[in-house]
Amino acid sequence: MSQRTAPLDGIRVLDLTRVLAGPWCTQNLADLGAEVIKIERPGAGDDTRGWGPPYLRDQQGNDTTEAAYYASANRNKFSVTVDMATPEGASVIRKLAQESDILVENFKVGGLAKYGLDYASLKAANPALIYCSVTGFGQTGPYASRPGYDFMIQAMGGLMSITGERDGLPGGGPQKAGVAVADLMTGMYATVGILAALNERHRSGLGQHIDMSLLDCQVAMLANQNMNYLASGAAPSRAGNAHQNLVPYQVFAASDGHLIVAVGNDGQFKNYCRVLGMPALAMDERYRSNSQRVINRASLIPLLTEIMLQRSRDTWLAELEDAGVPAGPINSLDQVYENPQVQAREMKISLEHPTAGVAPFVANPIRLSETPVSYRMAPPLLGEHTEQVLRDVLGMSDADIQALKV
Q1: If you average pLDDT over residues 231-248, what whole number do you get?
Q2: Are 305 and 176 contained in the same domain?
Q3: 392 is an active site residue
Q4: Domain match, 169 and 31 both
Q5: Catalytic residue among 183, 211, 392, 398, which?
Q6: What does 195-232 look like in DSSP terms, one character per residue?
Q7: Which of 153, 186, 241, 356 is the most exposed place for a label (fewest CB within 10 A)?
Q8: Local confidence band at 321 (pLDDT 50, 70, 90 cut-offs)
């Protein structure tokens, strides 16, 4: 039997994105085997190249010019510097689009039309092209022309209304997530949409336009909180580290630190109460079922809090694990990468980098048994592959490539 190739082997992606949402999507496609050509501005490139410190470090421990932020979302890509603002540069990008299966862009609505790089223009020359637009608010609606940034989208889309400590408590008030979740979730939804369109193209032979909005994705990702509101008519409020629908499912202080206890069903609550030395709590009518525990949260949590303070974090974690009660420590990132499970899953990888030597990166969490994710290249230097791509994909001569650079 012949060896199976990567899932997206033979698929070419033209990447006109920068910052995070778009690059996160195209890195997913690249990890799955697609050839991703990242178009960047000559002399500047992706905005995140300068979003440091920190920067990747060389073998002597000195900073390179490659920001860690940029490196998080751009591996397995070819970097081509072309100025689309010039007729010659726009023409090159249009030709690359004709040779591509997928184009991903995150320019403002209508911003690429003046270069002939909008979907309608490119579809005429390549009807099979799958064209994904990533914007703050989508291609339609009263906000379509507005710029959109993750922080403001987290606020507008409701996430900050349910994230943070409860009002009236120390530290209370709205809080954003610790990473750009609106960007990341949009990148993931865009990946799903592109793969769906690619599969449909096998039947129709035709591409289509995919309209991805950060605000849409932020609203959609609120999941059960959306339905809590839609079902009840009452907007959920911030609950700190507690769960809106499960009790107890929150942070508890131990005698020497903090831990998470995540009781997901009534059986686990019985086991939890047994570990606490309070089995009668599980039989109390106020706490026997999760729905009753949610209603009577205010009387139950103080009881649990007092007991949890009596022993050390690691003692609780060991006993809760033995009892089958989900619990875990609150790790800093250095502790995350020291965790034996994270190490066993090989979530930290190393790649050869042109200026940093061997540099650390984070593995893709998709585990395919027969056609695994591949790590072929570190995030590219600015324009590292310009000549290679223009020569190999478009057949341009050295003279034509040099003329384009002028």
Answers
A1: 92
A2: no
A3: no
A4: yes
A5: 183
A6: HHHHHHHHHH----EEEEEHHHHHHHTTHHHHHHHHHH
A7: 241
A8: very high
